[in-house]
C-alpha cells in the first residue's frame, strides 16, 4: 500500500483533533482531542520513517509518547482539581486569567 | 598612580547622599548640616580641579581610565576640558545655595508620623543629583555618560514628585495630581529621549567598535573611521534628540514649565541651572566631536528651532500668570540662545554659549530663589496675588530686581557678556537669524519688567503688608550670587581663559573657521 | 593725567554702591555723600579740562586702558577710556549740571523717606552717562547706554507706589530697549565689517567698505539715538517720564540721557559722512521731531509735560544739525550745551513752582506767581528768554547757527529743513510764552483742593534757588561765550571736523527772519494767554489741539497695535502651547492608552480563544514558510 495514504490519514486525524480542541468545552474531551493530534503526528512520523527507510521518525514517535504520557499526568491532575473546586469540567468556567 | 581627583569630586556627594539618607529621623537638622558640609567640601574639590586644570595644557586633563565591561569595550574613563571644568565649578557652586535655600522646604508637616524622614531624603536626593551631574560632565566614555545621563532622572523624579511646592492654588489632592503629572511628564520626556539615544549609542558601538570619545573622535579626525553619510546623520539625530529634550529645545520643551512650576524653587533651580546644562554641554562635547559633518548638515534646522525657542519662550513668558512658569519659559528662551551659540559654529558663539551656561545658571538661581522666598512668604505663585512688595520688603525687592535685570541681560551683569557673544557669533555667519534673535532682548525686558512691576510696585496689597524682609540665611544665598553676577559681568576673563582653548578645539573638530571681517577679507 | 579718567566714572559709581548697599544707617548723611562724590567728579573733570587747555590742539586727546574685558578668539573688547574735546564737553556738562541738580535735590527731596536711595540712583545715572561718553569702543558705550536706561528706569519709577510711575518707568525702559536693539545690531555689523568696534579703528576704516554697509550701520545707530533721545518714532516714553521727581526730569532732559543720542551720532560722524542716505534720514527724523515736540508742547497744560515737549523739539534741532554732517556737528553740540543750561534751569524752576504749590502741575491752576516766587520767576524767565532765542542769550547763538546750517544743506532739502527749523522757532516762542504767561502772569487761579488745603505759594529754600541762579547765569552767558569769536568751534573742530556751509540766503537774513518768527510766536501767545484770562478748565479745542494733548495719538496707536496686539499674541500662544504643542504629546499618550485598552480585550480568559490565536499564528507561520519557499 502507498505510504502516502497514511499521511492523509494523519492529516485527517490532526484536523479532527484540532477542531475538537477549538470547539468542545468539556476539558476531558479537549484533552482527548490533544491526544488525538499527538497521535496523528506520531502516525505521520512513523510513515515518514517508513518512506525514508531510517529510524529517526520512529525514535521521535517514542519521544512524543513519553511527552504525551507526562502531559496526561499533569493535565489530568489539573482537570481533576478544577472539577473538585468548581464541580464542572467546562474550560469556559476557568476564564479568570484575563486583565 | 596619582590621586583620582575627578572620581573623588563625583564620589564625595554620592557618599554624602547615602550618609544623609541614613541620618535618624529625629536628627533632621543634623542631616541638613551634613548635606551642606558635603556640598561645600565638593565645592572645595571643584576649586582644586579648577586650579589644577591648565588651560594651555592637553585637551583632556586629570584623566582616569580603567577597564569596566571588557566584552563591550566599556571603560571607566574620566577627563575634563575647559568647558567641563567651568560647568563642574558651576554645579558645585550652586548646590550649597540650593541646599541653603531649601532649608525648610522638606520639613515634615505636623500630620506626619515621627518615623517619616522626608528631610533626609530631600537633601540626599539633591546630593545624588549633584554626583550624577558631575560625573556626566567628566565622563569621556559614551556609555558611562549615558548611564549617568539617564540615572539622573531617578532622583529628579522623586524631587519633583515627592517634594512639591506647598504654595498651591488648588486643594491638596489637586496639588498632588498636578505634581505627579509634572513628575511623570518629566520622566517620560527624558526617558523617550534617552531611549533614542541608547539606540544611537549601540549604533555607534556597531560602527566604531568602542565607546571611547577620544578614540572615536581621533579616528574620525584622521580618517581611519569612515561613516556613511546617512549613518552619521541618524546617529547624530539620536544623540541630539536626547539632548534637545533635556536642554529643552522647542517643541520638546513643555515638560519644563510643569516641572519647574510644581517643584519647589530650589529644585526648579536644580532642574534648569544644573541638570539641563548636561544637555547643552553634551551637544558641544558629543554631537560636534563625534559627528562633525552631520552637525553641519543639521545646523540650519537647529538654528531655526533655537530661534523659535528664543522668541516663543519669551512671548509665552509674557503671557504667564504664574511666577515660576514665567521663569521657566524665560529659561526656554535662554536655552535657545545657548543652542544657537553652539551651532553658529563661530568662536564667539561657542565661547558665548559656554559662558551662557554658567551665567544663566547663576542668574536663574538668583531670580528663582528670590522668587521662591517670595512665594513661601505669601503662599501663592500667582503674579496677581502680589503688589507693592517693594514698600514692605525693599531688600527682597532689590535682589529680585537685580535677578530680573540679569535675566534681561543688562550690561554690567554676567549674562550680557554671554548673550552678546552668542548674538555676534551668530550674526557673523547668519545675519538674518542674528537680527531676529535680537528681538529676544526686547521681549526679555518686557517679561521681566512686567513681572517686577506687577509684584513689587504699586499700592501695597493687604495680604503682603506684613511680609518680612529677607532673613540672614536668605541673604546669604542671594548676596554671593549677585556678587558673582557683577564680578563675571565686569571681569569675565578668568572664565574665558579656561573656555577659549576648549572652544578652539571644538572649532577644529568641525573643521570650521571664523568668518573674516569684510575689510580684512578684502585685503 | 590720563589715570584720572577712570576716577571720573568711579566716584559717582562708588557713591551709588555705598548709598544703595549702605542701608538705613546712612540715611542722615546719604545726600551729602552723593552730592560730594558728584562734585568730586566735576572737580576731576575740571582738572583734566585745565590740563587739556594747556596742550596744543593736536595732543589733547587722552586714553586710559584698564583691562581686557571679554577676551575671546577674534573678539576684543576692552575696558578703556578716551577723553578728547568732545568727551570733555560732555563730562563738564554732565558733572556740572549734574552736581547742581544734586544740590537742588537736597532741598527738593527733603521730606522723602527714601532720599538716600534717590541720591544713589542719581549717582548711578551720572556714572552710567560718564561711562557712555568716555568709552573708547562701542561695546563699552553700550554698557553706559543701557546703564543710563536702568538709572532712568529706577528714577522715573522712584515713586513706585504710584502705578502710573511704575508703568512710565517700564515704558521708558522698553522703548529704550528697542533703540538698544539698534545699537547692538550696529555693533554686530561693525564687527562683521571691520572686525572690531573700537572708535579709532572703525572710524578710520570707513573708506574701505561699501556705502550700503555704512548706511545700514548709520540707520541702526540712528534707531539707537531715537530711543535715547526721544525722537520720532520712539519718543513716546518722554512725556510719561514726567512721573519721576522733577530733579530727575531736569537730569534726563538737560545733562544726561536724551543728549546721548546726539553724542552717538556726532561721535560716529565718519560713518554718517560716508552714508548720505543715513544722513538724510537723520535730518528728516530731526525735523519731524522738532515739529512734533513743539506742537505737543503747545497743547499740554501740565507744566512738566509742556517742557518735555520742548525738550523733544530742541533735541530734534540737535539731531537735525547732526544729520547735516560736518557743517552741523559743532552746532549740534553747542546747542546741546546751552540747552543743558536753560532746560535744567527751566525744569528746576518748574520743580520750585510745584514745591510751592503742593505738587500741582496744572498750569491752569497757577497764575500770577511772579509776586510769590521772585527768584524762581527771574531765573525761569531768563531760561525762557534763552530757549526762545532772545538776542544775546544762549539759545540765540546756538539755534541761529543750526537754522543757518539747515539752509546751507543746499537744494530743495536745504530750503525745506531751514523752513521747518524756522517754523519750529516760531512755535517754540509760542509755547514757551504760553508757559510763562500761564504760570507767572495773570490772576491767581488756584483753589483749595478736595481736603480744603489752599496752596500757599512761597519761595523755595536756598539749596534749591542757588542752583537755579547758577544755571540762569549759564543760560544768559554761555551762548555768547561760545559763539562770539567761534570759541566753541575752534575747541571742537579737531574732533568733529567742520566745514563752513554757504546758505543760499545770507546769515543776516537768517537772523532777521528768526527774529521775525520769534516776534510772531510771542505775539500770538500774548494775544491768546496774556490779553484774555486763562480758563481754569481747558476748552475743548480744535482737533489738532485735542490730538496734541494726547501726544498726537502716538500712544493710542501704540496701545492698539503693540499692547493689545501683543496681549492677543501672547494669550493665543499660551493657548497654542497648551493645546497644540503639549496636546500632541498628551494626544500620543492618550492614543497609546486607547490602543492598549483595545488590545487588552483580546485577553478574555477563554482557553479556546487563546487556542484559536495559537492555531492561527501557526497557520500563518506555515503559510509564510511555504510562500517563501515557493518564491
Automatic annotation (TrEMBL), chain A:
Q: How does it sit in the membrane?
A: Multi-pass membrane protein
Which EC number(s) does the record attach to this protein?
Answer: 7.1.1.-
Q: Which UniProt keywords apply?
A: Cell membrane, Membrane, NAD, Oxidoreductase, Quinone, Translocase, Transmembrane, Transmembrane helix, Transport
Protein's name in the database: NADH-quinone oxidoreductase subunit K
One GO CC term, this protein: plasma membrane
Q: Subunit composition?
A: NDH-1 is composed of 14 different subunits. Subunits NuoA, H, J, K, L, M, N constitute the membrane sector of the complex.
Q: Where in the cell is it found?
A: Cell membrane; Membrane
- Lineage: superkingdom: Bacteria
Instruction: List GO molecular-function terms, semicolon-separated.
Output: NADH dehydrogenase (quinone) (non-electrogenic) activity; quinone binding
Q: Does the keyword Iron-sulfur apply?
A: no
UniProt GO BP: ATP synthesis coupled electron transport
Automatic annotation (TrEMBL), chain B:
Q: Which UniProt keywords apply?
A: Membrane, Oxidoreductase, Transmembrane, Transmembrane helix
Q: What class of enzyme is it?
A: oxidoreductase
Q: How does it sit in the membrane?
A: Multi-pass membrane protein
Localization annotation: Endomembrane system; Membrane
What family does the entry list? Belongs to the complex I subunit 4 family.
Q: Name one GO molecular function term.
A: NADH dehydrogenase (quinone) (non-electrogenic) activity
What residues form the membrane-spanning segments?
31-51, 78-103, 123-149, 186-208, 234-255, 297-319, 326-345, 357-375, 395-418, 430-452, 472-491
Protein name per UniProt: NADH-quinone oxidoreductase subunit M
NADH:quinone oxidoreductase/Mrp antiporter transmembrane domain segment(s): 139-443
Q: Might you give the EC number(s) for this enzyme?
A: 1.6.5.9
Amino acid at each position: 500500500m502507498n505510504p502516502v495514504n497514511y499521511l492523509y490519514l494523519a492529516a485527517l486525524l490532526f484536523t479532527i483533533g484540532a477542531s475538537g480542541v477549538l470547539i468542545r468545552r468539556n476539558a476531558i474531551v479537549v484533552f482527548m482531542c490533544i491526544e488525538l493530534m499527538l497521535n496523528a503526528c506520531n502516525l505521520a512520523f512513523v510513515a515518514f520513517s517508513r518512506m525514508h527507510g531510517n529510524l529517526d521518525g520512529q525514535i521521535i514517535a517514542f519521544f512524543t509518547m513519553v511527552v504525551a504520557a507526562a502531559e496526561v499526568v499533569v493535565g489530568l491532575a489539573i482537570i481533576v482539581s478544577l472539577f473538585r473546586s468548581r464541580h464542572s469540567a467546562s474550560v469556559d468556567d476557568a476564564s479568570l486569567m484575563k486583565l | 598612580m596619582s590621586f583620582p581627583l575627578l572620581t573623588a569630586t563625583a564620589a564625595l556627594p554620592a557618599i554624602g547622599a547615602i550618609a544623609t539618607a541614613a541620618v535618624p529621623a529625629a536628627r533632621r537638622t543634623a542631616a541638613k548640616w551634613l548635606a551642606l558640609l558635603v556640598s561645600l567640601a565638593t565645592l572645595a574639590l571643584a576649586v582644586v580641579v579648577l586650579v589644577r586644570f591648565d588651560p594651555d595644557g592637553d585637551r583632556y586633563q586629570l584623566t582616569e581610565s580603567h577597564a569596566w565591561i571588557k566584552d563591550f569595550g566599556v571603560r571607566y574613563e574620566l577627563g575634563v576640558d575647559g568647558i567641563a571644568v567651568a560647568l563642574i565649578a558651576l554645579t558645585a557652586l550652586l548646590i550649597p545655595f540650593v541646599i541653603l535655600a531649601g532649608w525648610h522646604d522638606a520639613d515634615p508637616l505636623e500630620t506626619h508620623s515621627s518615623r517619616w524622614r522626608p528631610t533626609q531624603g530631600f537633601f540626599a536626593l539633591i546630593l545624588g543629583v549633584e554626583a550624577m551631574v558631575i560625573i556626566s560632565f567628566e565622563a569621556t566614555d559614551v556609555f558611562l555618560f549615558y548611564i549617568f545621563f539617564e540615572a539622573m532622572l531617578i532622583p529628579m523624579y522623586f524631587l519633583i514628585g515627592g517634594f512639591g511646592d506647598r504654595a498651591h492654588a488648588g486643594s491638596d489632592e489637586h496639588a498632588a495630581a498636578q505634581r505627579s503629572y509634572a513628575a511623570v511628564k518629566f520622566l517620560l520626556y527624558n526617558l523617550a529621549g534617552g531611549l533614542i539615544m541608547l539606540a544611537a549609542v549601540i549604533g555607534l558601538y556597531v560602527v566604531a567598535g568602542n565607546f571611547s570619545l577620544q578614540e572615536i573622535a581621533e579616528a574620525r579626525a584622521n580618517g581611519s573611521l569612515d561613516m556613511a553619510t546617512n549613518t552619521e546623520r541618524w546617529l547624530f539625530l539620536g544623540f541630539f534628540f536626547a539632548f534637545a529634550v533635556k536642554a529643552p529645545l522647542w517643541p520638546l520643551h513643555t515638560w519644563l514649565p510643569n516641572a519647574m512650576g510644581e517643584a519647589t524653587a530650589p529644585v526648579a533651580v536644580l532642574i534648569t541651572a544644573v541638570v539641563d546644562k548636561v544637555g547643552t554641554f553634551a551637544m558641544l562635547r558629543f554631537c560636534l566631536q563625534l559627528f562633525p559633518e552631520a552637525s553641519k548638515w543639521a545646523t540650519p534646522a537647529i538654528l531655526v528651532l533655537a530661534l523659535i525657542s528664543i522668541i516663543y519662550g519669551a512671548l509665552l513668558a509674557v503671557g504667564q500668570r504664574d511666577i515660576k512658569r514665567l521663569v521657566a519659559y524665560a529659561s526656554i528662551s535662554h536655552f535657545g540662545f545657548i543652542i544657537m551659540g553652539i551651532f553658529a559654529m563661530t568662536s564667539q558663539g561657542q565661547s558665548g554659549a559656554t559662558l551662557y551656561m554658567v551665567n544663566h545658571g547663576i542668574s536663574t538661581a538668583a531670580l528663582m530663589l528670590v522668587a521662591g522666598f517670595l512665594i513661601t512668604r505669601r503662599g501663592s505663585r500667582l503674579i496677581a496675588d502680589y503688589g507693592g512688595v517693594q514698600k514692605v520688603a525693599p531688600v527682597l525687592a532689590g535682589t529680585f530686581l537685580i535677578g530680573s535685570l540679569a535675566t534681561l541681560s543688562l550690561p554690567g551683569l554676567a549674562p550680557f557678556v554671554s548673550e552678546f557673544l552668542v548674538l555676534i557669533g551668530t550674526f557673523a555667519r547668519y545675519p538674518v537669524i542674528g537680527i531676529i534673535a535680537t528681538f529676544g532682548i526686547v521681549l526679555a525686558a518686557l517679561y521681566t519688567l512686567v513681572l517686577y512691576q506687577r509684584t513689587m510696585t504699586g499700592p501695597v496689597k493687604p495680604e503682603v503688608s506684613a511680609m518680612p524682609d529677607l532673613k540672614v540665611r536668605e541673604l546669604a544665598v542671594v548676596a554671593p550670587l549677585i556678587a558673582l553676577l557683577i564680578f563675571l559681568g565686569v571681569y569675565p576673563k578668568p572664565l574665558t581663559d579656561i573656555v577659549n582653548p576648549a572652544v578652539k578645539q571644538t572649532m577644529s573638530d568641525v573643521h570650521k573657521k571664523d568668518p573674516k571681517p569684510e575689510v580684512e577679507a578684502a585685503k | 593725567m590720563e589715570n584720572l579718567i577712570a576716577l571720573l566714572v568711579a566716584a559717582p559709581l562708588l557713591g551709588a554702591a555705598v548709598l544703595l548697599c549702605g542701608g538705613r544707617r546712612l540715611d542722615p548723611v546719604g545726600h551729602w555723600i552723593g552730592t560730594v562724590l558728584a562734585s568730586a567728579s566735576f572737580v576731576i573733570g575740571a582738572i583734566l579740562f585745565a590740563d587739556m587747555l594747556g596742550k596744543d590742539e593736536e595732543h589733547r586727546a587722552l586714553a586710559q586702558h584698564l583691562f581686557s574685558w571679554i577676551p575671546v578668539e577674534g573678539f576684543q573688547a576692552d575696558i578703556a577710556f578716551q577723553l578728547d574735546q568732545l568727551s570733555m564737553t560732555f563730562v563738564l556738562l554732565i558733572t556740572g549740571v549734574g552736581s547742581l541738580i544734586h544740590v537742588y535735590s537736597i532741598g527738593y527731596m527733603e521730606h522723602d523717606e527714601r532720599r538716600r536711595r534717590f541720591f544713589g540712583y542719581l549717582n548711578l545715572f551720572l556714572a552710567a552717562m560718564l561711562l557712555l561718553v568716555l568709552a573708547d569702543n562701542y561695546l563699552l558705550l553700550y554698557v553706559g547706554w543701557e546703564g543710563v536706561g536702568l538709572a532712568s528706569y529706577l528714577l522715573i519709577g522712584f515713586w513706585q507706589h504710584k502705578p502710573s510711575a511704575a508703568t512710565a518707568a517700564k515704558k521708558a525702559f522698553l522703548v529704550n530697549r528697542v533703540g538698544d536693539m539698534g545699537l547692538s545690531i550696529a555693533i554686530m555689523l561693525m564687527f562683521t565689517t571691520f572686525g572690531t568696534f573700537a572708535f579709532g579703528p572703525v572710524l578710520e576704516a570707513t573708506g574701505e567698505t561699501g556705502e550700503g554697509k555704512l548706511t545700514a550701520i548709520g540707520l541702526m545707530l540712528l534707531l539707537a539715538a531715537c530711543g535715547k533721545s526721544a525722537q520720532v518714532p520712539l519718543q513716546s516714553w518722554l512725556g510719561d517720564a514726567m512721573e519721576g521727581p522733577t530733579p530727575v526730569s531736569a537730569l534726563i532732559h538737560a545733562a544726561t540721557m536724551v543728549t546721548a543720542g546726539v553724542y552717538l551720532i556726532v561721535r560716529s560722524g565718519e560713518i554718517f559722512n560716508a552714508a548720505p542716505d543715513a544722513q538724510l534720514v537723520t535730518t528728516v527724523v530731526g525735523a519731524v521731531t522738532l515739529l512734533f515736540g513743539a506742537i505737543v508742547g503747545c497743547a499740554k497744560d501740565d507744566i512738566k509735560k509742556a517742557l518735555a515737549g520742548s525738550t523733544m523739539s530742541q533735541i530734534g534741532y540737535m539731531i537735525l544739525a547732526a544729520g547735516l554732517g560736518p557743517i552741523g556737528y559743532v552746532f549740534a553740540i553747542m546747542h546741546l550745551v546751552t540747552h543743558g543750561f536753560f532746560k535744567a534751569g527751566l525744569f528746576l524752576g518748574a520743580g520750585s513752582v510745584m514745591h510751592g504749590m503742593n505738587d500741582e502741575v496744572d498750569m491752569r491752576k497757577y497764575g500770577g506767581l511772579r509776586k510769590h516766587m521772585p527768584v524762581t520767576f527771574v531765573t525761569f524767565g531768563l531760561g525762557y528768554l534763552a530757549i526762545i532765542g532772545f538776542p544775546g542769550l544762549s539759545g540765540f547763538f546756538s539755534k541761529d547757527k543750526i537754522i543757518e546750517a539747515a539752509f546751507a544743506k543746499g537744494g530743495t532739502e536745504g530750503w525745506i529743513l531751514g523752513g521747518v527749523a524756522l517754523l519750529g522757532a516760531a512755535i517754540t516762542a509760542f509755547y514757551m510764552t504760553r508757559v510763562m504767561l500761564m504760570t507767572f502772569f495773570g490772576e491767581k487761579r488756584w483753589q483749595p483742593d478736595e481736603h480744603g488745603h489752599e496752596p500757599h505759594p512761597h519761595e523755595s529754600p536756598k539749596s534749591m534757588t542757588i542752583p537755579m541762579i547758577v544755571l540762569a547765569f549759564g543760560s544768559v552767558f554761555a551762548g555768547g561765550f561760545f559763539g562770539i569769536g567761534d570759541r566753541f568751534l575752534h575747541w571742537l573742530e579737531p574732533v568733529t571736523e567742520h566745514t563752513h556751509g554757504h546758505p543760499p540766503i545770507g546769515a543776516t537774513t537768517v537772523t532777521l527772519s528768526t527774529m521775525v518768527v520769534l516776534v510772531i510766536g510771542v505775539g500770538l501767545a500774548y494775544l491768546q494767554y496774556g490779553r484774555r484770562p486763562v480758563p481754569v478748565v481747558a476748552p475743548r479745542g480744535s482737533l489738532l489741539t485735542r490730538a496734541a494733548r494726547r501726544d498726537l495719538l502716538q500712544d493710542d496707536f501704540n496701545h492698539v497695535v503693540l499692547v493689545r496686539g501683543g496681549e492677543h499674541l501672547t494669550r493665543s500662544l499660551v493657548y497654542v502651547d497648551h493645546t497644540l504643542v503639549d496636546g500632541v504629546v498628551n494626544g500620543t499618550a492618550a492614543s497609546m492608552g486607547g490602543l492598549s485598552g483595545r488590545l487588552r480585550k483580546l485577553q478574555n480568559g477563554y482557553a479556546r480563544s487563546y487556542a484559536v490565536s495559537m492555531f492561527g499564528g501557526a497557520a500563518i507561520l506555515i503559510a509564510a514558510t511555504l510562500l517563501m519557499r515557493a518564491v
